[in-house]
């Protein structure tokens, strides 16, 4: 990915030697060796030739007597700082007059400008406390713009500052404007408003604090390679040995040499407000505010860079000829030299530290037909804008002096591609880590859709992690991004994802990335775990590790020796294959990926359930929702990647169905034991996608639970019936189906009736347990109708259960049971089954005689006229027609004992049935109907009745009913009992009791008439004191009067005297 557009020459044929450049807005200031200053306007538009051009606005001849070595722009006073002839002068813009010389800058070597926004109250407080001004950023107070100008002179540094355009001293209280240094800073760079970096030599750097006006030594690791001074001879010798092209080191006598052995300028670049990049030899270190490494990695250049520049976030460096391998620019070509024979402009990312663009000279190739441009050119003065932003300018000059005098120098402009384009190119190259790092370095104002792009790239990076075996990291990212679970599941083979499974070559496009089909991907094996098992896990951070030195670079030569560059020395393919065979076998990536998927799904599942609860939707309603199979794959992939709280109920249901189905399949593959708890707890699983697998694996219990949870009871019961065929014992055969039916509710009554029929055919008693269970209460009327349709006896058993166990008291069921008994008795008589008839009729009689929850008149109307006489007698008795009931017992049934027992049962001496025995006697002795048997003798049972129940019979009425021919001997027991009637004794006892009551009443009257008189002289016989007005007690029978408190003692005294 090339982040910069092809370089564009904006100015060519410049005959003077350019010593300094400054880009400020659309102006480009060019300082020359003769002291002239040229001001150009850089047009944003393109010329007709397709190249950007610079228009000369102004020329300041002899602005300085000597070469203009460095230019800087002081924003606060809108002036140009010019370093020339060892001093710094300020020129107001745009008039350049009057100039202001800074006398303290004699012997100036370098300058740097930094502008910050501080807050007035904080700055003043800092000045009063320690005598210095510190940059107080992002705090309260009135913001002010402060510009610092640092001038590095011989063994000292001088500071100037302006606040809102007004000059001020850095240390006002001490009136100190400069600080001595141990060495002369040849390079000065600001990190922030508090910290600067001074470069004394190419290998000696220090940090300087404005707060304390002290230096901090920079600590870097000890070099591991030969010093740069020895690179010249070794590099050239090895370069020649590698077959470098002729002229690779020619023209070194021009403006610019290879830099090996010459005194180069220190390179220090401000990367951000907390770090610098300093170049030591061929290594670039990132230094923090404490002078230590701020990053554990560093930049490894193939040779010490001659110049560096920074355009956020890229590092430009100019590398000498013969230091960069040709393979870094073009594909390997055996005819091409191993190293690029010209200088190279290398662009690296400060994020990944990898080269992103390598441009060998000449940077601009002439159009076809034009004379070729010499590659022997020098590159100098890499200059970016003060804010380290695009564009960047540099100067190219032919190395040959004669050619330089003829062609002159050119100023080349590097324009950065738009951020969106850079990120898109990184995404297309699958450099997701670099794209994310680049996004993090950008502000939202530069890229309005930053967050959307970041989420997309994070998802694509997670796909890459998944592809390389980092399943946990990938799925954690999907959780953080609230990724549509359909897309996550689609990364797995069909055994897990089903129809959602997507081949690896389509993963990127599935997650919103560019579609890119490679040959290797199109020929990938379609094995379920091929995409997972054949990939070798790599470090997820490999893209940001310190890159190795390029093959054939100077550094690699110095590290490994000359044997590393022997021509034709290559590894034997056979040897490498043997080494690969010795590696440990790869882990079971497929199983590991399933384990991580289960963790992901287990995380999503309760959260989706909680989101559904807010809409009052639970998994018990899964059967009411559209199945997952009803949605197309495109619709499922189109579900939004959003927090669960932002989804609609329909989308949440789809999420739940996808998650539970994938979790079910995952358990089926690696954790079969967890299937039963999953099915029992309720789920949103798509049955059609898993039932075949469960049947194939004979997971019938799990399948039944699954059917039950999704209210697919018909399938579950059919499966249970199929499984029952394998059982020999009848109870083992039927009870699973019975138990299942017992748990179904009234809403499934039709399914229960349909599935119970075959169980009744097998064993009615076991089948009846379906309706007598306490699990669920079914509609009793419907059940009774169903059972009556099957068998009267079964229905009778069911109603008997209701009455006995469920305390059913409605007349409907009691009358229905009586009707069933009646019908069963009639059917048994028709079929000649006397035993069954007797048993059923006995139940009917017992039922009619013991229960009260029926209407006797209705049941009586159902009885036939020529049978069921005993039942009729019971019903007549319930109707209060006792005489008719007794007549039925006597005349129809001729069962005198039952008639007598009937009288005993209803007899009430103080109620309307007090004469029931007399009624029975009358039926015996005064028949109103002809008995069924003419020879029956009713006198004998009548005599037995009066002998056993004479106290319950009226004597006079009984004697009237007895026939004249009945002898006294026949009625002897009745007569004896009648004569023993206690009429006289009662009158005597009554008279005695009355007399006794009168006697007691008279005695009470006498006692109540007695009085005692207490005078002032009356003395208590116990204590011999005057009674006076005290409480008294009167003692019987003589009426002695004592104090109340003396009563007990006097009573004891009287008792002793009496005895």
Weakly predicted, low-confidence segments: 125-139, 170-176, 225-262, 519-586
Compute the separation of the termini in Å.
Answer: 139 Å
Oligomer: single chain
In this structure, how is the largest beta sheet organized?
5 strands, antiparallel
What is the tally of beta strands? 31
Query: What proportion of the residues form beta strands (DSSP E)?
Result: 15-25%
What does this structure look like?
The chain is an alpha+beta fold. Helix content is about 40%, strand content about 15%. The radius of gyration is 59 Å and the shape is elongated. Belongs to the VAM6/VPS39 family.
Task: Label this structure with key terms.
1059 residues; 4-stranded antiparallel beta sheet
Write the layout of secondary structure elements.
Layout: E1 8-14, E2 18-24, E3 27-32, E4 37-42, E5 54-60, E6 68-74, E7 79-84, E8 87-92, E9 100-102, E10 110-119, H1 120-130, E11 143-153, E12 156-163, E13 166-168, E14 178-180, E15 187-190, E16 195-201, E17 204-209, E18 214-217, H2 231-241, E19 268-272, E20 275-280, E21 283-287, E22 299-300, E23 307-311, E24 314-319, E25 344-349, E26 355-360, E27 377-384, E28 392-398, H3 401-407, E29 409-414, H4 419-428, H5 432-440, H6 450-467, H7 471-481, H8 485-489, H9 494-497, H10 507-510, H11 519-522, H12 530-533, H13 554-560, H14 573-582, H15 589-613, H16 633-637, H17 649-670, H18 675-680, H19 691-696, H20 700-709, H21 713-724, H22 730-742, H23 749-762, H24 764-772, H25 780-790, H26 792-805, H27 811-830, H28 834-850, H29 856-862, H30 869-878, H31 882-893, H32 896-906, H33 916-925, H34 939-948, H35 955-961, H36 972-979, H37 983-1009, E30 1032-1035, E31 1040-1043, H38 1047-1058
């Amino acid at each position: 990915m090339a982040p910069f557009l092809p370089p564009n020459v904006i100015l060519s044929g410049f005959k003077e030697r350019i010593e300094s450049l400054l880009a400020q807005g659309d102006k480009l200031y060019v300082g020359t060796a003769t002291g002239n200053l040229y001001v150009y306007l850089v047009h944003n538009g393109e010329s007709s030739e397709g190249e950007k051009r610079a228009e000369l606005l102004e020329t300041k001849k002899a602005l300085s007597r000597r070469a203009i070595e460095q230019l800087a722009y002081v924003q606060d006073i809108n002036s140009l700082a010019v370093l020339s002839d060892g001093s710094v002068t300020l020129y107001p813009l745009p008039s350049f007059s009057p100039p202001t010389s800074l006398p303290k800058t004699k012997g100036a070597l370098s300058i740097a400008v930094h502008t910050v926004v501080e807050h007035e109250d904080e700055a003043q407080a800092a000045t009063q406390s320690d005598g210095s001004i510190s940059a107080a950023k992002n705090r309260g107070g009135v913001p002010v713009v402060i510009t610092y100008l640092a001038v590095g002179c011989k063994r000292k540094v001088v500071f100037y500052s302006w606040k809102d355009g007004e000059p001020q001293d850095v240390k006002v209280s001490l009136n100190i404007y400069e600080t001595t240094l141990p060495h002369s800073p040849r390079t000065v760079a600001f990190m922030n408003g508090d910290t600067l970096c001074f470069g004394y030599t190419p290998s000696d750097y220090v940090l300087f604090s404005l707060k304390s006006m002290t230096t901090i030594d920079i600590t870097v690791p000890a070099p591991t390679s030969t010093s740069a001074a020895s690179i010249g001879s070794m590099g050239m010798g090895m370069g020649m040995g590698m077959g470098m092209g002729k002229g690779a080191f020619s023209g070194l006598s021009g403006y610019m040499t290879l830099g090996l052995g010459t005194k180069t300028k220190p390179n220090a670049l401000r990367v951000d407000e907390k770090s610098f990049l300093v170049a030591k030899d061929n290594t670039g270190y990132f230094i923090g505010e404490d002078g230590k490494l701020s990053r554990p990695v560093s930049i490894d250049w193939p040779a010490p860079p001659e110049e560096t520049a920074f355009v956020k976030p890229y590092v430009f460096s100019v590398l000498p000829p013969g230091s960069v391998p040709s393979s870094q620019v073009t594909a390997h070509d055996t005819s091409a030299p191993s190293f690029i024979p010209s200088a190279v402009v290398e662009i690296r990312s400060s994020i990944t530290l990898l080269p992103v663009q390598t441009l060998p000279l000449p940077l601009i190739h002439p159009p076809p037909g034009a004379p070729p441009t010499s590659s022997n050119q020098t590159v100098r003065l890499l200059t970016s804008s003060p804010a380290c932003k695009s564009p960047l300018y540099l100067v190219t000059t032919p190395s040959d002096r004669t050619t330089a005098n003829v062609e002159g120098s050119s100023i080349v402009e590097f324009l950065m591609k738009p951020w969106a384009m850079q990120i898109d190119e990184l995404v297309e190259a699958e450099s997701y880590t670099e794209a994310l790092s680049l996004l993090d370095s950008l502000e939202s104002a530069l890229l309005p859709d930053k967050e959307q792009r970041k989420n997309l790239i994070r998802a694509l990076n997670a796909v890459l992690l998944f592809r390389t075996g980092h399943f946990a990291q990938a799925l954690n990212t999907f959780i953080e991004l609230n990724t549509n679970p359909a897309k996550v599941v689609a990364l797995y083979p069909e055994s897990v994802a089903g129809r959602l499974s997507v081949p690896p070559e389509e993963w990127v496009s599935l997650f919103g990335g560019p579609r890119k089909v490679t040959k290797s991907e199109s020929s990938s094996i379609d094995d379920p775990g091929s995409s997972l098992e054949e990939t070798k896990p790599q470090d997820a951070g490999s893209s940001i590790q310190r890159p190795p030195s390029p093959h054939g670079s100077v550094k690699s030569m110095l590290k490994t020796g000359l044997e590393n560059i022997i021509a034709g020395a290559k590894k034997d393919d056979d040897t490498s294959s043997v080494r690969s065979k010795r590696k440990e076998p790869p882990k079971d990536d497929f199983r590991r990926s399933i384990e991580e998927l289960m963790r992901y799904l287990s995380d999503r599942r309760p959260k989706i359930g909680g989101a559904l609860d807010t809409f009052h939707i639970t998994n018990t309603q899964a059967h009411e929702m559209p199945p997952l199979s009803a949605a197309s794959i495109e619709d499922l992939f189109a579900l939004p990647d959003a927090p669960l709280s932002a989804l609609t109920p329909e989308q949440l249901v789809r999420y739940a169905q996808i998650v539970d189905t994938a979790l079910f399949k995952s358990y089926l593959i690696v954790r079969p034991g967890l299937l039963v708890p999953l099915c029992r707890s309720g789920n949103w699983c798509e049955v059609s996608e898993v039932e075949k697998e469960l049947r194939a694996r004979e997971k019938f219990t799990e399948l039944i639970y699954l059917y039950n949870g999704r209210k697919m009871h018909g399938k579950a019961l059919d499966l249970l019936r199929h499984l029952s065929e394998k059982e020999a014992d009848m109870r083992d055969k039927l009870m699973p189906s019975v138990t299942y039916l017992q748990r179904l509710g009234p809403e499934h009554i039709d399914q229960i009736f349909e599935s119970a029929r075959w169980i009744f055919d097998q064993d009615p008693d076991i089948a009846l347990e379906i309706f007598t269970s306490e699990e669920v209460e079914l509609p009793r009327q419907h059940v009774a109708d169903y059972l009556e349709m099957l068998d009267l006896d079964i229905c009778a058993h069911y109603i008997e259960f209701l009455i006995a166990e469920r305390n059913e008291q409605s007349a409907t069921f009691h009358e229905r049971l009586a009707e069933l008994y009646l019908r069963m008795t009639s059917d048994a008589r028709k079929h000649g089954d006397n035993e069954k008839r007797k048993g059923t009729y006995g139940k009917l009689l017992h039922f009619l005689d013991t229960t009260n929850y029926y209407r006797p008149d209705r049941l009586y109307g159902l009885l036939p006229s020529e049978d069921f006489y005993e039942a009729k007698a019971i019903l007549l008795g319930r109707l209060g027609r006792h005489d008719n009931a007794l007549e039925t017992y006597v005349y129809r049934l001729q069962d005198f004992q039952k008639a007598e027992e009937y009288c005993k049962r209803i007899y009430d001496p103080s109620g309307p049935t007090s004469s029931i025995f007399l009624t029975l006697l009358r039926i015996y002795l005064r028949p109103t109907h002809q008995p069924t048997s003419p020879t029956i003798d009713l006198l004998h049972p009548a005599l037995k009745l009066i002998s056993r129940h004479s106290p319950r019979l009226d004597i006079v009425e009984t004697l009237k009913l007895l026939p004249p021919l009945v002898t006294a001997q026949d009625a002897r027991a009745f007569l004896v009992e009648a004569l023993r009637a206690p009429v006289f004794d009662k009158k005597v006892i009554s008279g005695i009791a009355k007399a006794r009551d009168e006697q007691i009443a008279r005695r009470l009257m006498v006692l109540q008439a007695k009085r005692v008189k207490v005078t002032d002289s009356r003395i208590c016989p116990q204590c011999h004191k005057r009674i006076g007005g005290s409480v008294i007690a009167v003692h019987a029978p003589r009426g002695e009067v004592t104090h109340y408190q003396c009563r007990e003692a006097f009573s004891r005294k009287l008792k002793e005297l009496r005895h």
